[in-house]
Design brief:
Layout: E1 2-5, H1 10-19, E2 25-27, H2 45-60, E3 64-73, H3 94-104, E4 112-123, E5 126-138, E6 154-156, H4 168-174, H5 176-189
Helix pairs in contact: 4-5
């Protein structure tokens, strides 16, 4: 089976490919010559995932899945949430986003947060949605060199290391994207 994963993000593509069975051929947006940035104008993470699959299906005709992920910090009322990738501006600079987050949490005691991934699937004219959530907290000082985005400051609940200190396999096992992907894989296996 061939599916397009609606992303230009090579880090996400690598994480997803590591989780999927070999009988699924995953194409990226670059593989189908989709080089434009798909608008993410919904006001929810779930809505953005749906917008991406609809765009690919309507413009390119492929069966497709797409994810959108956000970091929701309790003390910030769920921010950055749907704006996680562009929290510090449209440049989508991971370091600037992390710096802004840490600035807003300076002196804040409640640092509880969750990563949330929504995966939308458009397959043979039908749409489905899969969710994965990973609870944790935001550290005051980044740790680790692996991962991407907010990984150096996110410590999953019950673990001594941040996502940026974990192997890809360990992060996928407990993380939000891995949880949502396992739901997608289970659905596709049926």
């Amino acid at each position: 089976m061939q599916l397009v994963f609606a992303t230009h993000n090579e880090n996400k593509l690598r994480e997803i490919k590591a989780l999927l069975p070999d009988h699924l051929e995953i194409l990226s947006l670059n593989d189908i010559n989709c080089h434009e940035e798909i608008p993410e104008t919904a006001d929810t993470i779930e809505g953005n995932a749906i917008l991406k699959v609809e765009f690919v299906t309507n413009h390119y005709g492929y069966n497709c899945f797409a994810d959108d992920t956000g970091l929701e910090v309790n003390a910030l009322g769920g921010a950055p949430g749907v704006y996680s990738a562009r929290y510090a501006g449209d440049a989508k600079n991971a370091q600037a986003n992390m710096d802004k987050l840490l600035l807003h949490l300076k002196g804040v005691e409640d640092r509880s947060a969750r990563f949330k991934t929504a995966i939308a699937l458009s397959l043979n004219g039908r749409k489905n949605l899969f969710l994965g959530i990973c609870e944790g907290s935001i550290l005051a000082i980044p740790r680790g060199q692996k991962g991407f985005g907010y990984d150096p400051v996110f410590q999953p609940l019950g673990f001594p290391q941040t996502f940026a200190e974990m192997s890809l396999a360990d992060k996928s096992e407990i993380g939000h994207r891995g949880k949502a992907m396992r739901e997608l894989i289970d659905y596709l296996a049926k």
